[in-house]
Write a structure and sequence with these properties.
heterodimer; A: 108 residues; mainly beta; 6-stranded mixed β-sheet; 5-stranded antiparallel β-sheet; 57% strand; B: 116 residues; globular
Chain lengths: 108, 116
């Protein structure tokens, strides 16, 4: 079983759509959680941290459920520029463990 | 601030040769640097963690004699892929941390290695 698993994707959505990504992690001792964004052939960039209380940054909302070991990312009013691969990332003992990523393609 | 560079950005080499990739923190001192590898359509996989002045700690399954890591200064780490083979073709990304929270890693732009 992979340590961090994500929806397989790809997600193809029209502009303005709301899209949700899910992620599960296997190690209950994981300490902190993040969503990164990776554009094609580029390095990953931190999108946002994820907290149990839920957190929002503009059109992006992240949620963490420690009991279910589940993380989500919701993107509202998607833009063409949101097209990228979204990586679910977990901090385990100071190491970042990356999920496989879910590809999002936003079409006009 | 917190800029990390990598050089070269891409390299093509022949099978059997060695390739050195540099990772530099440009505006901060990196006490810890991390090396990742990413194959197409796959996740970033941590290869090794290096602390300045110490030997690198390799992840399970990563051959330390094949992937030589040197972190001789607080701003520079190098990864040398020795006797490269086509299966080593991948995207190699480094990240650097100034020693704050473990997740405060700043990523370099990556190096795309193709071994022919």
């Amino acid at each position: 079983r992979k340590e961090v698993e994500q929806d397989p994707g790809p997600f193809n959505v029209p502009e303005g759509a709301t899209v949700a990504f899910n992620c599960t992690y296997s190690n209950s001792a994981s300490q902190s959680f993040f969503w990164y964004r990776q554009d094609c052939r580029k390095e990953p960039k931190l999108l946002m941290s994820v907290y149990s209380s839920g957190n929002e940054d503009g059109r992006f909302t992240a949620q963490l459920n420690r009991a279910s070991q589940y993380i989500s990312l919701l993107i509202r009013d998607s833009k063409l520029s949101d097209s990228a691969t979204y990586l679910c990332v977990v901090n385990q003992g100071g190491k970042l463990i990356f999920g496989q990523g879910t590809e999002l393609s936003v079409k006009p | 601030g917190a800029v990390v560079s990598q050089h070269p950005s891409w390299v093509i080499c022949k099978s059997g040769t060695s390739v050195k990739i540099e990772c530099r923190s440009l505006d901060f001192q990196a006490t810890t640097m991390f090396w990742y590898r990413q194959f197409p359509k796959q996740s970033l996989m941590l290869m090794a963690t290096s602390n300045e002045g110490s030997k690198a700690t390799y992840e399970q399954g990563v051959e330390k004699d094949k992937f030589l890591i040197n972190h001789a200064s607080l701003t520079l780490s190098t990864l040398t892929v020795t006797s490269a083979h086509p299966e080593d073709s991948s995207f190699y990304i480094c990240s650097a941390s100034a020693g704050g929270q473990p997740y405060e890693q700043y990523f370099g732009p990556g190096t795309r290695l193709t071994v022919t």
